[in-house]
Design a protein that fits this description.
Strand order of the largest sheet: 8-11-14-17-20-25-28-31-34-37-39-40
CATH class of the largest domain: Mainly Beta
Shape: flat
CATH topology of the largest domain: UDP N-Acetylglucosamine Acyltransferase, domain 1
CATH architecture of the largest domain: 3 Solenoid
Radius of gyration: 27 Å
Structural class: alpha/beta
Number of helices: 4
CATH superfamily of the largest domain: Hexapeptide repeat proteins
Length: 346
Amino acid sequence: MKINLKELAELLGGDLQGEGLAEMTGAAPASSAGPSEVCYLEDLSKKKLLDGTKAGCALLPRAAKEAELPYGGNRIYVDNPKWAFTILLRKIQLEKRPKAPWGIHPTAVVHTTARLGKYCHVGPFSVIEKDAVIGDFSFIGAQCYIGERVQVGANCHFYPQVMVREACVIGNQVILHPGVVIGADGFAYIFVNGRHEKIPQLGNVVIEDEVEIGAGTTVDRAMLEQTRIGAGTKIDNLVQIGHNVHIGRSCIIVAQAGIAGSSVLEDGVVLGGQVGLADHVRLGKGSMVAAQSGIMDDLPPGQVVFGSPARPRLEAMKILAIMGRLPEMYAFFKKMKAKFGDGQDK
C-alpha cells in the first residue's frame, strides 16, 4: 500500500496537521510503527503510548487538537480513531489478501443441478451438492462441503474446511472461518428400554446477513424448525450453539461459550468467554454475561451478570470480595470460639 497523508485524510474524513505529500506504506502499533507507518490513539488518558513513537502519522481524536501530546509528527484528527484505523486496515487487507480468481477449481465436485452466481470461486477439493445455490461473488475455499438444497447468499467468504449441511440457509456477506460446521444434528436423545435413542433432527439453520463465525464453531440444526442467528451477530472461535437456539441481531459471543438447546438471545446480547447457558433460557435485549458465568434462569433486558450461578455483577463482586477474606474471618472465628466457647448452653 502507498498513500500520501492528504489522500489518507480524505479517505478517513479527517483533518490533517502535517505534510500532505508524506507517503505511508502500512499500519502498526505506536510502540513499533516506523516513519512510513500509521498508528492510532483512541483514549487521550493513554497518551503515554505515543511517547517515543517513530510513526509517520498518528490518528487522533478531534479533542486532541487542544491537548499536549508526547508526539510532534504528522496527525490526522478524526471522530473515531479506532474506526478510522479499521478503514485503513481494510484498504491494506485488499492488497495483502486479494481473493483468488473466480471459477471452479478442476478438483472441485459441483453437482449438475447446483447453481452458482456470477464471479464465484470454488476452491480445490470442495463439494457442492444437488440443488445447492451459491450467490454472486461468493468465495468457497478449499475442501469445503455445501450440502443438498443449501442456499448461500452473495459476497460470502467461506474459508477452508467449512461444512454447511443440507437445507441450511446462509445470508449475504457472511464469513465462516476454517472448520465451522453449520447444520450438524442437535444433541437429542430419549432414554428408552435402557438405551439412548436418537431423536431425528429434521429442521435447519438460518444465518442472516453480515454474520461472522470463528474457527471451529458449530451451529446445530433444529429438531423441526430453525436454529437462527440474527443479522450482524459476531461469534468467536470454538463456540457451541445447540439446536433450536435463536440468537438476535448484533450479538457478540466470545470463545468457548456454550448455548444449550432452545435458548433465546434477544438483540445486542454479549456473552463473555466460556459462558454456559442452560436450555430454554431467555436473555433479554442488551444483557451482558461476564466470562465463565453460568446462566440457569432468564435475564431481563439490560442486566449485567457474573458468576456461576450468575448474579447481578455488583452483588457477585461483593460475594467474591467476602470470599477472599474467609481465611482471616475463619481464624478470627476460631479464636473467639476458643475464648468464649461455642455459645451453647451446657
